[in-house]
Every structure is written in structure tokens, then in C-alpha cells.
């Protein structure tokens, strides 16, 4: 009986220790996510491995156990490091744009990660694309008019951050209603819903990470994830002059 009692106590002690270790790990993970200076904590607790996937879009984790996905993600991250970009322009624009974009996305029920689209679409070089897309959200003239923007006769509201963001919210919401996936909605934003629908039907596949898409759309989500990573953890990717912009701005706007 004594041996059995000792064995029971030993098992309970081990379970308590495991529980404590899990609490410790979770506590550190939360501090990493919520602390303004993310690099300070990650450098100090580099051995802590979070249970959450570090790379995700709209709460959908990238399947980084897939070699193809990992390769494309690494390529995109490398393309967005300070060593490659050689400028802090992306962080400066995030500071300027996000306080306007974030509350509008929330108001329309769109995940916060969609705020990275303007940085990917027009972050480094603004203006009109060869195809005619313009503004932070890179709207084509016809699409812009469809979602309430005035384009023509000396007026181009695609360049208006607030109005173009509202138009983008309406468009993204419609795309989500069509594909029932935020990842596919983002892909359709880049490639158009008709082309994406054709690809889904042809391949009989509706998982973005398993689909074969054109080069631009096939790398689009990876670019958004990479942009999210360098904005939230600037020092990790060589941007030593900027702290993380992980928390949404509390700014509230009247957009009616």
C-alpha cells in the first residue's frame, strides 16, 4: 500500500510540474504577443516554443510542415527584409495608414490582417499600374465605380484613403460571401473572383495552399504574411529603427 501511495504521489507531482511548465510557456507567449517591444522578449526567451503557428493570415495558420509552403514563405520573408528593401518606408506608411484602415475593417467585420493589402499592393511604389489600377488598394476604374468611388472628370477617389478603404471593405466582404474563406477572398482580390473560381473548379481544390495559381496570385498570401511579420517584428527582419506595430490603433472614425 505504501509503494502504491508513493507511486500515486509521484504521478501527481509530475502532472503538477507539467502543468506549471505549460502555464509558464503560455505566459511568456502572451507577453511576446502583447509587449510593444517584441524583440526584447523574443531574444530573452528564444528557447520558448509557442503552440500557436507564428505565421498566419486572418487566423488561418500556414501549413509550414509542407516543404513547398515553407519555401515560398522563406522567399517572401527574404524579399521583405531591410537588407532587400533598404528603406523603412513600409513602416512609415503603416503608421500613417493603419489608424484609418483598422477601424473600418472592424466595422465591416473583416479580419485585421487585410490592412496589409495596401502595403503589398502599393507600399513601395504608388501611382497607376500598367493595367490601370490606382490608389492604395489598387482599384481598376470599373471596380472602383462598382463599389462607390468616383473616377473620371478630374476626380479620382481611388487616391482617397478613407473612401477607397470603405470600397475595399465592401468588395472584400462580397468576396468572402462568395468563397467562404478569408484566404481565398484575399487571393480573389488579387486575381479576380472569376479567374479564381475557374481555378477552383478546374483543380477541384479550394485550399489556397494546395492550389496551382499564376505566379502573382500564388505568392500573394505569402507576401501578406511576410508584410505582417516585418511590421509586427521589425527588428527581427533588420528594421532596427522601428518598434512593432502589433496592436490595432484605437482610433475611431465616422465613415457614414
UniProtKB/TrEMBL annotation:
Residues 114-207 form the Transglycosylase SLT domain. InterPro entries: Lysozyme-like_dom_sf (IPR023346), Transglycosylase_SLT_dom_1 (IPR008258). Belongs to the transglycosylase Slt family. This is Lytic transglycosylase domain-containing protein. Pfam families: SLT (PF01464).
Amino acid at each position: 500500500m505504501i509503494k502504491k501511495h508513493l507511486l500515486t504521489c509521484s504521478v501527481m507531482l509530475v502532472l503538477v510540474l507539467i502543468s506549471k511548465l505549460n502555464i509558464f510557456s503560455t505566459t511568456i507567449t502572451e507577453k511576446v504577443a502583447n509587449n510593444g517591444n517584441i524583440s526584447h522578449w523574443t531574444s530573452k526567451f528564444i528557447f520558448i516554443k509557442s503552440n500557436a503557428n507564428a505565421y498566419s493570415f486572418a487566423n488561418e495558420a500556414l501549413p509550414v510542415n509542407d516543404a513547398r509552403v515553407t519555401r515560398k514563405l522563406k522567399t517572401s520573408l527574404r524579399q521583405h527584409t531591410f537588407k532587400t528593401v533598404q528603406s523603412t518606408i513600409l513602416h512609415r506608411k503603416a503608421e500613417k495608414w493603419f489608424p484609418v484602415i483598422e477601424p473600418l475593417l472592424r466595422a465591416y467585420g473583416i479580419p485585421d490582417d487585410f490592412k496589409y493589402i495596401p502595403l503589398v499592393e502599393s507600399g513601395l511604389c504608388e501611382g497607376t499600374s500598367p493595367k490601370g489600377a490606382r490608389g492604395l488598394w489598387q482599384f481598376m476604374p470599373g471596380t472602383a465605380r462598382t463599389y462607390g468611388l468616383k473616377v473620371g472628370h478630374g476626380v479620382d477617389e481611388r487616391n482617397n484613403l478613407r473612401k477607397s478603404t470603405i470600397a475595399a471593405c465592401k468588395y472584400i466582404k462580397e468576396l468572402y460571401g462568395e468563397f467562404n474563406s478569408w484566404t481565398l477572398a484575399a487571393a480573389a482580390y488579387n486575381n479576380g473572383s472569376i479567374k479564381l473560381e475557374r481555378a477552383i473548379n478546374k483543380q477541384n481544390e479550394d485550399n489556397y495552399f494546395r492550389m496551382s495559381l499564376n505566379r502573382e496570385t500564388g505568392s500573394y498570401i505569402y507576401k501578406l504574411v511576410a508584410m505582417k511579420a516585418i511590421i509586427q517584428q521589425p527588428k527581427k527582419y533588420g528594421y532596427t529603427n522601428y518598434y512593432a506595430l502589433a496592436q490595432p490603433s484605437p482610433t475611431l472614425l465616422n465613415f457614414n
